[in-house]
Structures are given as C-alpha cells and as structure tokens.
C-alpha cells in the first residue's frame, strides 16, 4: 500500500453517520479502518473492518494493529462511536451509566491513545470527535445528563489534545451536531425533532460528513468545536 495514501480510522462505522463517513473517505481515496460491534467484512481492499466493543482496550489495539499491518500508518481518527440514552436523571440505572461511559469515554480514550502514538512517529495526524450541541444548550424535554457528562468531556479533551500536540504536528477537533436524521430516529419522531432547531429541521448525515471532511482538510484548524446544529448552540 502506498505510503502517500491517507488513512483514517472510523469508529461506530457499521451504520448511520459512521457508515456514511466510511463511504465519503473512500470516495476521497483514503484507506479506511472501520470498526463497530456488528461490522461485517467487505470486498474493498482499501477497507479493513474490525468487529468488537470499542470500549475494550484489546479491541482498540486490534483496530490500530490491523490498520498498521494493512496500510503502514494512520493519518486521521474519527471518534464517531457513541450512545445516547434519554431518561430523567434519577431514572438512569447503573447499567445505563456503565454503557454510556464505556462507549463514549472508554471508546475515546483507548483508541485515541493508540492512534496518537502512531501519529507521533510521523509528526502528523488528526483526531476528530463527534459530540453534541446538547452540551452547550440543554433542551427542555430532552433529558441528556449522561450525554453532557461524556460528550462535554470530549469537547474539553479535544482542546487539551490540540494544545498538547500542536507542536508535534497533530491536530484535534470536534464536530458538535444537532439532531441528525439517521436510523436512530423513527420517522414518526421527525416533526417534533425538526422543531428543536432554530432553522426548523434536523440535519442530514451528509452535514456531519462534510464537516469532518472540512476539518481533515484544514491544517490551520485545531482545538475547534464545530457546531453543525441548525443554530441550536446560538440560542432558542
């Protein structure tokens, strides 16, 4: 595999935004390491799939190892895997708490450590988190404490990473979506979800994909939390 081909790791890559990110990066000529619990092998020699729980460090190690074995290096990591459980705060169970921390926090920590260690070898790299604009503006009727606890932490970690690794040639950014029209939202909920955005409608998965592609092509941008949320973070 050419050492000049750009290579990206995408977590939560089996469907929704993750699946669209894989397609878009391939269209731009990237080699892709795609991971998710239920992901299946594909015929494309420029896509490596690794099935497993991204919160498990052993799985994260396998993702990076298989990516390096196939492509020789990693340029970009997109931490897309995440889960959202909307419950009143006092109704969250210990299992809910553990599940959200496992994917949203452990799933970021392990693979990001391992990916940056590879990026340091080339003095070049980019890490992108997918977070949520609920961190900035909570919405009545959308209970989201666990999302804010975890995704808010990722926004802060993004800025810390950007500063820590700026002189090492490694950038860190985040995309902070509003509510995106994806398989996780049933069609019958769309009208109510549209109304939660100042522009009057949900975003499309392509909006998030385009934001990630922009950040990956913007070498002077680091430490940025890019809101792609139909105005949610600006006000209501």
Automatic annotation (TrEMBL):
Q: Does the keyword Oxidoreductase apply?
A: yes
**Which Pfam families does this entry report, sorted A to Z?**
adh_short_C2
Q: Which molecular-function annotation in GO is an example for this chain?
A: oxidoreductase activity
Sorted alphabetically, the keyword list is: Oxidoreductase
Alphabetized PANTHER family for the sequence: OXIDOREDUCTASE, SHORT-CHAIN DEHYDROGENASE/REDUCTASE FAMILY (AFU_ORTHOLOGUE AFUA_5G02870), SHORT-CHAIN DEHYDROGENASE_REDUCTASE FAMILY PROTEIN
What protein family is recorded? Belongs to the short-chain dehydrogenases/reductases (SDR) family.
Name-wise, this protein is: Short-chain dehydrogenase/reductase SDR
Q: Which organism is it from?
A: Caballeronia humi
